[in-house]
Write a structure and sequence with these properties.
The chain is an alpha/beta fold and 420 residues long. The protein contains 10 helices and 26 strands. The chain has a 5-stranded parallel beta sheet. The protein has a 5-stranded parallel beta sheet with strand order 9-16-10-11-12. A 5-stranded antiparallel beta sheet has the order 22-23-26-25-24.
Length: 420
Amino acid sequence: MNLLIVGNSAAGTAAIEAIRRHDGQSSIVQISDEPHSLYSRCLLSYYLAGTIPLDALQYRERDFHTTMRVQLHAGKRAVELDPSRQEVRCDDGKVYPFDKLLIATGSSAKLPENLPTGIEGICVLRTIDDVEMIRKKVKHARNAVVLGGGLIGMKAACALRECGLETKVVVRSNRVLSQMIDEEASQILIERLRQNGIDVLKETDVAGIRTRENALVGVRTDQGQDFPCELLIVAKGVHPNIELIQGTDIKKRWGIETNPHMQTSCGNIFAAGDVAETFDIATGEYAINALWTCAVQQGQIAGLNMIGRTTVYDGTVGMNSLDICNTPVISYGITSPKETSQYQMLVRDRRGSNVYKKIILEDHRIKGIILIGRIDNAGVLLSLLRRQADVSAFEDELLDDQFDFGRLVGHGDPSVIAQY
């Protein structure tokens, strides 16, 4: 059987490993638009900050594809898919046939329309090449602005400050990490950022830039502020790379629709990672969760189903974790519901110690979690969320720093214990 994988990151790698655990015979061909060997995008900000070397980005051995007997075609882009002919054409004109196809093309950074392209000093943080470009600029820069207060924006800001640059974060919303935490938790982190020399401008946007000889020298905000700036990192989120299915009958919404087997509406074509819409356990809806852990899980499920080992993907939980100025932050599921009447909020706020915990419940089942400062019991809380277990017997203990699996066993509730 001819298996074709488009994309060479978390989902594609996980699919290869799942396939080869059970199938040593099928041909696997992989296409990647990046020339680099496998590396972790999650660690790029640490490489930018200089806290890890380039080699530490590698998350598989350099001979991975040889060992797995995969024909890797790197540095070329898949541009056209013909489902009826079961072929993918690349930008160099070469055509690759397949019996089963996995689309794992990931996502790309969103770029604001009001920012010009081709200006030296305006960058994104998505690839090794992006980081190398930023590192060169850092050597001669004194001031940096990060546009966007999401996960990538926070990591970029901390890395730039670590490099010694005066760093500002410009955020359109009223808080940082607005997709990950609530306003109270955000305020704790903003204070930590400011204590470490990173200024945060809320409810503000970049309205324009100043250049000299095609190089960035300043930014202007929509609040009338003007800052010197030699480096502007755009971190306004990502969009799924679904261009390959344009012109086909494969169903899509925000991303490519998939079923619990990671199949698309075309039965022999699968999708996984940042391009795939999957069931979200917390919200009960289909959505894209552009997270490394989700991509790995989905890639594994897709790989197994591609070789006929029927496996069901239970669904996604939006999960995020990072460290901001030595303050660990974790969130799962629904963290800032717009309509609160159907939810119960459990909160423990110890801001003086940079500790904040919040659990969102619906009908005695965990729908969301925020942990700042003390994250020791994140694992057991996530397990309860994923299984949608009834926690009514021990709700008053969920926020305890010592709450763990042992507490569940101590309650002796077979309906809960049996789920572990």
